[in-house]
Amino acid sequence: MPTRRTVMKAGGAALLPAAGYGVSAAARAATPAAVELPEPFSVRMPIPRTLTPVARTATTDFYEMTARTTTISVFQGTTTEVYGYNGEFPGPTIRARAGRRVVIAQTNQLTMDTAVHLHGGHVPPASDGFPLDVIAPGATRTYEYPNRQQATTLWYHDHAHHMESEHVYRGLHGFYLIEDPREEALGLPSGAFDLPIMLRDARFAEDGSLHFEPEDFQNRTTILTNGRPQPYFPVAARRYRLRLVNGSNLRSFVLRLGDGEEMTQIATDGGLLGAPVPTREVRISPGERVEVVVDFTGRSGSQVVLADEHAGAVLRFDVGRAVYDASRVPPVLRPLPALATPDVERKMSLGIDPQDFTFKINGKSFDPNRVDTTIRRGTTEVWEVTNSDAFTIPHNFHLHLVQFRILSRNGQPPAPSEAGWKDTVPLGPGETVRLQATFHGPPGRYVYHCHLIDHSSHAMMATMELTD
Questions:
Q1: Fewer CB within 10 Å: N-end or C-end of the chain?
Q2: pLDDT confidence of 35, banded at 50, 70, 90?
Q3: Element holding 384 (H helix, E strand)
Q4: Is it the case that residue 263 has pLDDT exceeding 80?
């Protein structure tokens, strides 16, 4: 159970997820028993391997994955034991087609229960990774994903009850990319010029081992980019699409390129925005996805650093020669439909109970045997979600099954960068957002929770049931 000390430790340094709440880069040298970090930009950023189906039919791609321990070399001269899907860190990437089913046989070779959640996926309840729908050690469970949603960047990760924070921290996460012809016709950068990039933080001991302690935000001072600290990546002098995923348990990022150079945001959690948004920074809380296009044209021979405002450099792009570039960013990406008239309005409050410092939603800790919210299929609802911890503790809110649109933040219209389809939204202390979603999908149980997953692992989660 979290204590007042651990709660305040996590929250005291974490003022606003929307503003990032990292520690300074110098903190890594001050962390007791920390591994000696390599020189910045001394290792190339790996691109997670795309997994090949073991079988295909006219409608379905079949895959096999195994969660197991493996050792990797994060730092030269040391090895680190991690958990990995197929022994990879991050796990292999699934590239799915909209409207084409994916079936994954997930085998658990760890010594504890696991569960797999496709974050942002519109899936049946048996395949959603409900926290008690676990895969026992040595067992296999089949997950079915219909992919009846537009092209988007999703990710999959563990969701086992009380264990999700440690399992994700130790490596049970990977990319799941849905592609569709409509997006491909836009001419955005693709193929080798479309880069999935997962950012997260970690704490390493002197021997290179990965150290996990709940609410240990301040000591997780090593930033990993696709599993490597401060890597470099060679790029051509042309446009690139960067698919950014925040895979941290607690840390938010505020990312800037070079000396504040302009990027073009094209997508959020649920896919493309209505129109591109020029920006000089990307704000991304745990579980969120942001996609940007960066133009390196005319930069041959230069080095361009992507950095977080608190943690420092996370990735360096080494710009090579110019190559032919037929890509573009059109002025209209995917117009957003008009919102339906809502049928129901609800209020949700996320906060720490001051009596026992437990994490709760609407005053209740998660009970998997209790249904907190019953929803009729096909209804449109507005949820007013408030972070009731008004001083220091950030939260964010993740809704399973559906994407939502943000109607307002603290009474004001959403910023253009979060005006598209979302499934995860940051909430600074005292903040309120109003969200609208239409609940389509098979009947059954799903969850909603804080995706600062050290919090959800400590029961800041609730169950909703979709009914006919």
A1: C
A2: low
A3: strand 380-387
A4: yes
Q: Could you give the angle at the alpha carbon of 424 between the alpha carbons of 438 and 122, nearest 5°?
A: 50
Look at residue 229 and tell me whether its pLDDT is greater than 70: yes
* Paired tokens of 9: 């430790």
Coil/strand/helix, residue 125: helix
What pLDDT score does 356 carry?
Answer: 87
Amino acid at 79: T
Cβ atoms of 405 and 417 within 8 Å: the answer is: no
Q: Phi and psi (nearest 5°) for 290?
A: -135, 135
* Closest to 283 in 3D by CA, of 17, 15, 24: 17
Tell me the two tokens of residue 212. 């996990």
pLDDT band at residue 200 using 50, 70 and 90 as cut-offs: very high
Give pTM, 2 decimals: 0.94
Helix count and strand count (H, E) for the chain: 5, 32
Q: Which residue has the tokens 């935000």?
A: 217
Count Cβ neighbours within 10 Å for each residue of 341-378 and write b for 16 or more, e otherwise: eeeeeeebebbbeeeebbbbbeeebbeeeeebbebeee
Share of the chain above pLDDT 90, in %: 88
Domains of the chain: residue spans and CATH: 37-184 (2.60.40.420), 191-322 (2.60.40.420), 344-467 (2.60.40.420)
DSSP 127: G
Contacts 24+ apart (CB under 8 A), 351-357: 351/387, 351/388, 351/389, 351/393, 351/395, 352/7, 352/389, 352/393, 356/1, 357/1, 357/2, 357/3, 357/4, 357/7
Does the pLDDT value for residue 27 go beyond 60? Answer: no
Give me the chain's average pLDDT, please.
93
- Give the bridge partners for 263, in sequence order: 279
Q: Can you tell me whether residue 165 is helix, strand or coil?
A: helix
Q: What is the number of other CB atoms lying within 10 angstroms of the CB of residue 191?
A: 7
Amino acid symbol at 5:
R
The answer, yes or no, to whether residue 110 has pLDDT greater than 50, is yes
CB 159 within 8 A of CB 116: yes
What average pLDDT does this structure show over 265-289?
98
Q: How far apart are CA 6 and CA 17, in angstroms?
A: 18
